[in-house]
Amino acid sequence: MQDLLHVLGALITLAGSAFLLLGGYGVLRMPDCYNRLQAGTKASTLGTILALIGIGLFHPSWFGKLLILAFFVMLTSPIAAHALARAAHASKVPLSERTVVDKLAEREAP
């Protein structure tokens, strides 16, 4: 049973690492600040949570603490990305030329 948990933990940790790697690649490939924030936030949140769950399977005594960490990552990462995107929009950071809709600018227009 212990070996099964270690193999499962390794696979889940590997999946989390893959999401973190793909998130980093997405940050490099996206055309503007807003898309980079979205790619980095979603992938890093999921990757971090998967890595924490995988580590929890390696060390079952840590699992409760790691779930609390995962909860805080799920709570703070999207809020931080939202605040950064709003600050970038308020600072007039330009959108990509391929961006079609800017709902925030439409809502703030008089």
Tell me about this structure:
This protein has about 110 residues and is an all-alpha fold. The protein has one domain. The protein is about 80% helix and about 0% strand. It has 4 helices and no strands. Helix 1 packs antiparallel against helix 2 and helix 2 runs antiparallel to helix 3. The radius of gyration is 18 Å and the shape is elongated. The relative contact order is 0.14.
Secondary-structure topology with pairs:
Elements (H helix, E strand, L loop, with lengths): L1 H28 L3 H26 L4 H28 L12 H6 L2
Helix pairs in contact: 1-2, 2-3
* Distance, first to last CA: 64 Å
* Major sheet description: none
Principal-axis shape:
elongated
Q: What's the multimeric state?
A: single chain
Strand content: under 5%
Reading the helices and strands in chain order gives HHHH
Helix count, DSSP H or I runs of 4 or more residues: 4
Total count of strands: 0
Given as residue ranges, the uncertain stretches (5+ residues, pLDDT < 50) are none
Structure class: mainly alpha
Task: Tally the structural domains.
Answer: 1
The gyration radius over C-alpha positions equals 18 Å
How much helical structure, as a percent, in the residues? Answer: over 70%
Mean pLDDT: 92
